[in-house]
Amino acid sequence: MPIAIPSTTVQGIDTDKNGYYITGTAPTAGMTIPTTANTFAAGCIIVNTADGTQWVNNGTAAAPVWSGSGTKTVSLSAANLIAMYATPVVVVAPIAGFNIVVDSVDFDITRTATAFTGGGVVAVQYAATANGAGTATTATIAATVVTGAAGRTVTARIPVVLSDVATASITGIGLYISNQTAAFAAGTGTATVTVKYHLV
User: Fold this and answer.
1) Does 5 have pLDDT greater than 60?
2) What domains appear along the chain, each with residue ranges and CATH number?
3) pLDDT in tens, 51-91
């Protein structure tokens, strides 16, 4: 049966011999899994069907302690690529009380004969700060990856070292893709960005 939490529910699926859930689903992006005592078995896995986060109970049935990880892929239209300088695109929704720590970023773009022009380096960042000015999660992706000749390419980035970052800059804050310097223009290509992450 569903476990009620504010504005949404976690749906338990399978139970163990004690009646504690060992698997389940959560329907709302960015939601936090409840810590209701004697409901979730140690090792219980809850999959968020909206944002792809997989939660695991590393505590006990009496005192659940959830950790999460996931992979999220977001499609970027030409309009998204052109507008993301001023209007960053959300990749992973905020999750209250947790830091979304990036493990890797893959940027897969299909450019057409109508090339993008202008623009600056692309970055996946914390917060929807315009002009790519949020706290960076990886090294930037060269603007030429977007403005290059027709064809499909993939660019991979590993995370930057986050050291002594104020929690107010990353806790409960989502990940967005933006670019620096100037907006792209004119192109008709499309892209996807895939972020692998864990929660702390």
Assistant:
1) no
2) 2-64 (no CATH), 71-199 (2.60.120)
3) 889 999 999 999 999 999 999 999 999 999 999 999 999 99
Q: Whole-prediction pTM value? A: 0.86
Q: Which residue has the tokens 């999460």?
A: 68
d(CA 119, CA 185): 7
At residue 2 the predicted structure's pLDDT band, cuts being 50, 70 and 90, is low
Give DSSP secondary structure letters for 144-158: HHHHSSSEEEEEEEP
Q: Could you tell me the two tokens for 83?
A: 């507008």
CA distance 92 to 102: 10
Burial of residue 155, with CB atoms counted within 10 A of its CB: 0-12 exposed, 13-18 middle, 19 or more buried? middle
CA dist., res. 151 & res. 131, Å (int):
26
Among 6, 42, 44, residue whose Cα is nearest residue 25: 44
Please give the distance of CA 23 from its chain centroid, rounded to a whole number: 22
Q: Under 8 Å CB-to-CB from 97, ≥6 apart: which residues? A: 32, 171, 172
- Measured in residues, the chain has a length of 200
For residue 162, which of 143, 141, 134 has the smallest C-alpha distance? 134
